[in-house]
Structures
1.
Amino acid sequence: MGRFLTVLLAACFVAATAGGQTTGNPVTETILSGYSARMFASEPVSDSDIDLILRCGIKAPSARNSQSWKFTVVRDDALNGSIIRDFAPGNVLIFISGPESGQQGSFVDFDCALATENMFIAAQSLDLGARIYGGPVGQVNQEKREELEIPEGYRVISILRIGHLEQGVDAVSSASTRKSMEEVVNYRD
Ligand SMILES: Cc1cc2nc3c(=O)[nH]c(=O)nc-3n(C[C@H](O)[C@H](O)[C@H](O)COP(=O)(O)O)c2cc1C
């Protein structure tokens, strides 16, 4: 009986780990099936989802644990629509900002990017759509910082859009392709 149990447990372990480490791992599943949404529905995102997403952003690592980011959550559809084309009512924009006075060689941009990515993945794990925007950042910093109430002395580094996905959008056809492992990975002998 003991031998049978050992064999059974070993078989369960092999089955659980077969096919690499993605099967049944919700984090890697979310990352590997994720994509930048284009088609958003007009359905408000709940405060509790935004709260959880923000906590995931705050949990990001940062150089010397400086955590120098600020997150500005904007639910003003008219204002958001003046920044992002095809903005759907109920979507939320999170503006991720860092200190303007970041010294040369500081990691402010890097840190803010990590927080952005944490929130991007967190949103997808909650079955929400997400998209990172860098295009409008220059104009936002020039013209809309005050209206957006970005904290004094901070500049926007990235914008994260979060919303419910339009039903029927095919995640596979929406996803962009990636370079192959052979193209981007080399193992030093
Ligand atoms: C730093 C950064 C800036 C981006 N800026 C924009 C943007 O201005 N407009 C946009 O539509 N998508 C933007 N994207 C989304 C990318 O186009 C998208 O992540 C990429 O094409 C890969 O697509 P996928 O995430 O669906 O696989 C940006 C992404 C990143 C990481």
Note: Confidence is low (pLDDT under 50) at residues 4-20.
2.
Amino acid sequence: MTPRTRAATLTLLSLAALVPLGGLGAVGAGASTHAGARTTTVKAVETDFHIALSTTSFSPGRYTFVARNKGQTTHALEITGPGLKNATTATINPGQSATLTVTFKKGTYDVFCPLPGHKALGMNVNLVVRVRARAPQPLMGATTTAVPGG
Ligand SMILES: [Cu+2]
């Protein structure tokens, strides 16, 4: 990587950092031309024995889960689903946090605590990743008048 391309990459990263994360659900509403280049942060608050996610609406893309243990015992966060393998944090002590970055595809994922028994006690969230409807984009060079019958 030449210094020049490196600088360009850094500039892009800086721009990405300036995009406000604000209102979950509003993410992706605007100029999200490169869905894969954007990482959405999701808070996962773990208690004894529950996992609360800061968002429940997911579309394909990259997500960083910030797992925070607000319980009295140790926990961890693991995610299974299409394309994921060994996506898990280390054990998280009470009061500590850990992050886990994953790439979601369309499909169903399971977010849970892998410590023995915790999943069965309720530390389990199923989430569905859906492809969001986009505004229709005209084909290159297509003209509406060429379509018979409208
Ligand atoms: Cu746990």
Note: The chain has one helix and seven strands.
